[in-house]
Amino acid sequence: MSAALAEDRAADGGLAAGRAAYRRLARRRLALLAALVVLLLGSLVADLTLGPARYSYLEVIRALLGLEVPVSVAVVVQEIRLPVALMAVVVGAALSVAGAQMQTVLNNPLASPFTLGISAAAGFGAALGFVLGVSLLPSGWSAWTIPANAFLCAMGCALLIHVLSSRRGMGTETIVLLGIALVFTFNAALAALEFIASEQALAAVVFWTMGSLGRTTWAKLGIAAAVLALVWPVFVRQAWSLTALRLGEHKAASFGIQVGRLRLQTILLVSALASITVAFVGTIGFIGLVGPHIARMLVGEDQRFFLPASALAGALVLSAASVLSKAIIPGLILPIGVVTALVGVPFFFSLILGTRSRAW
Amino acid sequence: MVNTLTVENVEARYGRRAVLRGVTLPELRGGQITALLGPNAAGKSTLFRRIVGQLAGPGTIALDGRSLEALPPQHPDRPCYLPQDTSVSAVLTVFEAVLLAGKQGGGSWAVTDAEADAVTATLMMLEIEELAARNLGELSGGQRQLVGLAQALVRQPRILLLDEPTSALDLQRQVEVLDLLQQLSRQRGLCVVLAIHDLNQALRFADQVAVLGGGRIVAHGAPTEVLTPALLREVYGVDARLERCSRGIPFLAVDSSTRARAVARAIARG
């Protein structure tokens, strides 16, 4: 090894070759992101064609572009199906980004927003409304009782973890263990509520926990999209630091990154993202796990590619699940959480077992 | 230009256990290699972490007379620390991992030609450019250690703290890496501090050594003056002599360990 010899070899074209190889890698990753965008658009349009009445792709595209179509088609596509289809995209992206960052900061491939008990807390909050009629909002906001209860309980759970881990300086393993303990606690509390619930309330709780996009409104879609849009720039700004975190705490700290602060900030943002989506669509836990793993297999863990790839992969998986939930039994819309698990898990297994490169 | 690191009366503790008890290092200057020696758990890694600010505690750490605490965490003049642990599960290529270090965890998403060239030049310097497209998880321990060195060198530091940087390397690579560090130190004024267990490598490549024991510096100075039989017996519990080969290069010949002798006596007594 010699610094002088290396300079000679660099002058002989070594630098140009290294630069070209890196640019090729970056272009390949951008092409994969573009492919995910195309697939997502295809899935979105397919989602809009399906429902009690089936429309052609041409009709849907014309309706979306405001071109001439029967009024009924325009109303159904634009007012009824579009917010639901877009909600699948936004929720899929949000849950997948949340899962990606949770896996990154906790250095754990099994981590997802739900590892910390967020989903279980949301389910408990919703059940409080369904079973006991408790509203955590002031009176006059009854239409928002269930999502608000779910959101506030989920955020309460996240804040509890935030406070405990700030004060005690916990490591990632302890945070995960604490989260798992909270999952069991909230699930037990939910079971207790279900035990005393009326038949009607019990059915409502069970349906809510299965996850459904059917309760979407433009207002809910707007709120979920706004939270994602607010959180996104923070992750973009932290992209290099978050990538460095995957090299290990000590290595990241040696780059001057304040690891503890970055981890807690990310956990809080991820919790907000997951809480708001769970509050609106119920429990769809699988996306936060599978989306990041698909992204990781496609583009690696450089957050400049991993972050958008996670969002796109999660959006694509949930949008495709929405299509399947309407296509499997014509005329019946299956709960989206059930479809993502039943169809997505075998697909995920095939990816994990079929890939030659390391998935984690 | 930053070229002198001062470490005085530095303390550090894990909970109630004091690991460093008023450590003062000899002045660490650019153009020099300092070997930080001491048995396992002597506090070498802790001292590095204390110097770069990963651990808090009393004491003075200054760069050219300016307190290190006054510099922001990602300031380029801060000492660059390469931790000992090379295990990593990140799905990143070697090129990306070194690029990431060059970015020091911040900056624009765009990668300029100069940044990409700096990565390639560093990989070439360590003769691992053929690994550029390989994933970190596919590398051997020694290759990961070289990538870690590349991550440190790509940042073009003025002060480099290396925690056992050659522990996973074969003999040839050990000599090559230490030789490269010596070149960089001499030619570019780099100040290198390395924690190392191989005392013969310390004798050969270090300009000065500092020996940690019991949370304090027990000796420091020129390697051949510090590594005396008495010190080696006190710190490492071995009987050893400093010899010179036919070419005049000093080396340590270890006769026996006091613990091994005690065990042999106990066995003999039955």
In short:
With 360 residues, chain A is mostly helical. Chain A has helices at 3-49, 57-65, 71-106, 118-132, 145-168, 172-196, 199-210, 218-237, 239-245, 249-254, 259-281, 287-299, 303-327, 336-354. The two termini of chain A are 32 Å apart.
Structural class of chain A: mainly alpha
CATH architecture of chain A: Orthogonal Bundle
Question: Mean pLDDT of chain B, nearest integer?
Answer: 90
CATH class of chain A: Mainly Alpha
Number of helices of chain A: 14
Q: CATH top level of the largest domain in chain B?
A: Alpha Beta
Beta-strand residue fraction of chain A: under 5%
Descriptive labels:
heterodimer; A: about 350 residues; mainly alpha; ABC transporter involved in vitamin B12 uptake, BtuC; B: about 270 residues; alpha/beta; Rossmann fold; 3 domains; 9 helices; about 35% helix; ABC_transporter-like_CS (chain B); P-loop_NTPase (chain B); ATP binding (chain B); translocase (chain B); ABC_transporter-like_ATP-bd (chain B)
Describe the structure.
Chain B: Pfam families: ABC_tran (PF00005). Chain B: It comes from Teichococcus deserti. Chain B: InterPro entries: AAA+_ATPase, ABC_transporter-like_ATP-bd, ABC_transporter-like_CS, P-loop_NTPase. Chain B: One of its GO terms (molecular function) is ATP hydrolysis activity. The complex is a heterodimer of chains A (360) and B (270). Chain A has helices at 3-49, 57-65, 71-106, 118-132, 145-168, 172-196, 199-210, 218-237, 239-245, 249-254, 259-281, 287-299, 303-327, 336-354. Chain A is mostly helical. In chain A, helix 4 (118-132) packs antiparallel against helix 7. The longest helix of chain A has 47 residues, at 3-49. The two termini of chain A are 32 Å apart. Chain B is an alpha/beta fold and 270 residues long. Chain B has three domains: 1-79 and 157-223, Rossmann fold; 87-155, no CATH class; 228-269, no CATH class. In chain B, the strands form four sheets. Chain B has a six-stranded mixed sheet with strand order 8-9-10-5-11-12, with helices on both faces. In chain B, strands 4-1-6-7 form a four-stranded antiparallel sheet, with no helix packed on it. In chain B, helix 2 crosses helix 3. The longest helix of chain B is centred in the middle third of the chain and has 18 residues, at 171-188. The interface between A and B is large, with 46 and 60 residues.
